[in-house]
Amino acid sequence: MPPVHAQIHKMSFHKESVRAMQFSSDGKHIFTASADKSMRLLDMETGTSMREITSAHTDAINVLCMVEDNLLVSGDDGGVIKIWDVRQAGVALTYDECEDFISDITYHQPTNSVLTTSGDGTLSIFNVKNPRKPFFVQRSDYMDEELLSVCVMKNGKKVVCGTQEGIISIFSWGQWGDCSDRFPGHPLSIDTILPLTEGICLTGSSDGLIR
Questions:
Q1: Cβ–Cβ < 8 Å for 64, 114
Q2: Is the pTM value of this prediction over 0.85?
Q3: What would the pLDDT profile of 125-167 be if each residue is shown by its tens digit?
Q4: Least packed by Cβ within 10 Å: which of 55, 75, 103, 161?
């Protein structure tokens, strides 16, 4: 076995920057998405490309999220969200109501829900209980700033979003119209959020600090 710091593969399949990657549920493959609008399925053992969708989106792809075993969610610069059935390499749902880039996607397994944030200041929710027929549930009101990151906390009772203005906006589950709480504290944008426990999350800000 090579040392942990050794490079195992160098895979050059995309023509522009690779913006998102997600492991398959079994850890044997990796999905990649690029600014060149394409998506690929790569074999982790051999480093080879097993599948390619050259025009997966009409705009650069920003983010991917793996849902259980068979669904992959992608979001692009134009605000389009696509839910893919990886068994068929086809799109199960396309949602194009967002008016700006898709910034983050997360999956909440207990409710079979996919949540996405957008640069237009909205949070969108989808139900994926039936992988072959996912459907749009609701979109929030427009917030005053871009929503850049999202996670689910408090055992599914709260949805936490990071904003361009450094505000943490909190939604109560099922009450998607407007956020229920707002917490300042970041001087710059909150680009990523990671739940540590059900009541504690880590934030990564463009000021270079983790809080």
A1: no
A2: yes
A3: 999 988 778 899 999 999 999 999 999 999 999 999 999 999 9
A4: 55
